[in-house]
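Hi V.,

Quick status before I head out on leave. The structure for the redesign project is tokenized and pasted below; the design run finished overnight.
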């Protein structure tokens, strides 16, 4: 069973419940903010301080960064684009089988979006909740001129402790360190003992997040950039909607079209990025 619910402040979300998992997806930003397979429990991190206020992005879950990832060339525009703060339309909820529910949400241009980004578009988020979570984000250029996008599924994964985890699948990949603007090559797995903000490139393989008793796997398609982020102590203290030691509880592993992995869509062309997340106890 799935239903549209509203918080006391009117903030609307879809609660999905089937035999394999449950999930919560906000209409604002088509933002998945909980995914709980019945076998393993919550996979996504959600800040205790998320206030679920209209026009403010939820801190945690899977924010959609679109139509640009990071800062726009026009620095007056919001970091990571406007999709995450925009109200999507619910197109469809389908119980495909007892273990699988599919939710489709859509955003098109508005007078406000046209002021920030002068293009007509359809942005569709299809989320399939089962014993895996599949998030599919399709951009269609419905304008008469080409446009360029960068984007990310900015997934926050909950972890038992940031110092307990290791990310594999990025060994030997080159990355841009956003903290120093320098390029490096990853040696070994990624572990954390300070702030990390990196854009890995030419990543075609699966990523694994190993925690003390669990491994989460991420399979991406339509993108070859992977962003890994943890703010650590100082930045965490400055972040909105994060308590000061929240950095210990999550890591972001983001499925992205970033830097030279941008896409240009001609009129009527479309592009889809997909992330499939699964987990198991080890
Ligand atoms: O993807 C990493 C990043 O761009 C970081 O630099 C960090 O600031 C983070 O995203 C969160 O951004 P936000 O706009 O949600 O505060």
């Amino acid at each position: 069973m799935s239903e549209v619910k509203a918080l006391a402040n009117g903030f609307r979300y879809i609660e999905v419940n089937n035999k394999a998992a449950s999930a919560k997806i906000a209409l604002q930003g088509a933002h998945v903010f909980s995914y709980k397979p019945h076998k393993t429990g919550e996979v996504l991190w959600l800040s205790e301080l998320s206030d679920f206020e209209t026009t403010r992005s939820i801190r945690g879950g899977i924010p959609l960064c679109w139509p640009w990832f990071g800062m726009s060339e026009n620095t007056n525009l919001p970091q990571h684009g406007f999709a995450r703060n925009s109200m999507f339309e619910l197109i469809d909820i389908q119980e495909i089988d007892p273990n699988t529910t599919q939710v489709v949400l859509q955003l098109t241009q508005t007078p406000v979006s046209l002021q920030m980004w002068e293009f007509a578009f359809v942005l569709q988020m299809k989320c399939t909740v089962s014993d895996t979570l599949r998030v599919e984000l399709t951009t269609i250029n419905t304008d008469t001129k080409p446009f360029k996008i960068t984007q990310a599924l900015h997934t926050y994964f909950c972890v038992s402790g940031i110092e307990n985890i290791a990310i594999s699948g990025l060994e030997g990949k080159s990355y841009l360190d956003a903290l120093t603007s320098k390029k490096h090559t990853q040696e070994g797995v990624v572990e954390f003992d300070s702030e990390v903000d990196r854009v890995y490139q030419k990543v075609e393989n699966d990523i694994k997040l190993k925690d003390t008793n669990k491994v989460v796997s991420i399979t991406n398609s339509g993108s070859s950039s992977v962003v890994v982020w943890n703010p650590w102590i100082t930045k965490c203290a400055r972040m909105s909607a994060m308590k000061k030691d929240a950095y210990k509880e999550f890591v972001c592993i983001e499925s992205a079209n970033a830097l030279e992995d941008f896409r240009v869509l001609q009129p009527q062309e479309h592009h889809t990025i997909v992330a499939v997340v699964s987990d198991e106890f080890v």
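Above is the designed sequence. The pocket of 6-O-phosphono-beta-D-tagatofuranose is lined by residues 70, 79-80, 154, 178, 197, 227, 229, 252, 254 (CB under 6 Å).

G. will cover questions while I'm gone.

Best,
W.
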